[in-house]
Structure formats: C-alpha cells, structure tokens
Amino acid sequence: MQSCSKRLALFLTLSALMSRPTTLNAAPKAAPKNGSNQLPVVPIIIGQKVPVLSVVDAFNRPRRLADLRGKRHLLLTLFPKCFTGNCTDQLISLRDSYSDLQKQGVEVWAVSTDAADGPKGQRAFAQHLKLPFPLIPDTDRKISLAFGAVQSKEQMAARMSVFIDKEGTVRWIDKQIDPRTHGADVLTRLQEESASPAEAQKSQSPASLQH
C-alpha cells in the first residue's frame, strides 16, 4: 500500500513538472538588427546640433554640412517620390524661390528614397525640372531616419523640411508643407524671424515640431 502511494506521488510530481512551460532553454529576445524592418533610432529634434551629414548627391558630387558651417544655412527638404504631383510642386516652388533663398544665405538639399539612376530616378527628375540645387538619394533611409521621416526600411520619406542654421543646429522642422507655396513660405518665415527675434525663439521651441 505504501509502495503504491509513493508511486502515485512520484507520478503526480512528474506530471506537474511536464505541464510547466520550459524556460531554461528559451533564447533571450535579440536586439533589433540593422537588417530588421524596424529602425530604432531617436530622431534629431529642434535645438539639437546635427553631428555629421556627409552625402553624395544624384550626380555623384559630395555634399557635407561641415562645409557650410559658419557660412550658410541649410534647408533639408524631404519628399516621397520623384515624378509625382505634389513632389513636383514642392521642388518647383523651391526652384522658383531659390535665388531669394540664396540671398538669405540658405542652401537647399532635396532628399527622397529614390535611387539616383533610371528613367524615374533623381537624376532624371532634377534634369526634367532644371533644379539649381542637389537631390540626395537616401536609398538606405539614413537621412530620413535621422530626422523622423521614416520608421521602417520600406517606407518612402514623409514630406517635411528641416532648417539647419549656420552653426549646424536644427532651428525648425515643418511637417505641414504646402507643396505649391513651400519656397515662398520658407522665405516669409525667415523674414519674420529676422524682423522679430522673439519669433525666432518661438520657432525653436519643442512645440514647433508640430508646425
């Protein structure tokens, strides 16, 4: 009788152990890899300095933010795709305002996730629109990711512009661009900030991230 009780107890103990989830051999969750679809990088925000921005444009010319330091501001304008309606309007607007932007000490770089080559690539788009400023192919999404224009490697860049001053500091970010008037809108904003230091300070506040 005692032997039967011991066998029953042993059976119940083994059954309980086998019913528990196994955790000893479970592999720990790996940190996201570079090849993962999700790109967990904290975007640069207003008031931060851009540490390094060195790229090659659609015509294979090197472009470095460091070369503008202390000399020129930079308007980094991002757009979703070449040869599409709103993106065409956005770049035409900046093209038509470019000479006035230059007078304000502003360079323009336009960024999309399109490749440089091909009939629908950035080089063909730049030639088609006769753009006086460079297009930057961001096929690896590094620039778009750095400024919060994408969250995954499959996304096209969101439409937005980032204004970086002569000292390499992000002064403002505009996420509500009107493609048809963007160039004139940037000029108006610069003129208002120049006329009113208080307005310039306001544009650098975290709340202006939503503008």
What ranges have pLDDT less than 50 throughout 5 or more consecutive residues? 8-40, 205-211
CATH topology: Glutaredoxin
Shape: globular
Please tell me how large the radius of gyration is: 26 Å
Q: How many structural domains does the protein architecture include?
A: 1
Describe this structure in words.
The chain is of the alpha/beta class and 211 residues long. It has one domain (40-210): Glutaredoxin (3-Layer(aba) Sandwich), CATH 3.40.30. Helix content is 33%, strand content 15%. It has helices spanning 2-19, 85-96, 98-103, 122-129, 142-146, 182-195, 197-203, and strands at 54-56, 62-64, 73-78, 106-112, 135-137, 160-164, 170-174. Strands 5-4-3-6-7 form a five-stranded mixed sheet.
Short key terms for the protein model shown above:
single chain; 211 residues; alpha/beta; 5-stranded mixed sheet; 7 helices
Please describe the topology of this protein.
Blueprint: H1 2-19, E1 54-56, E2 62-64, E3 73-78, H2 85-96, H3 98-103, E4 106-112, H4 122-129, E5 135-137, H5 142-146, E6 160-164, E7 170-174, H6 182-195, H7 197-203
Parallel strand pairs: 3-4, 4-5
Antiparallel strand pairs: 1-2, 3-6, 6-7
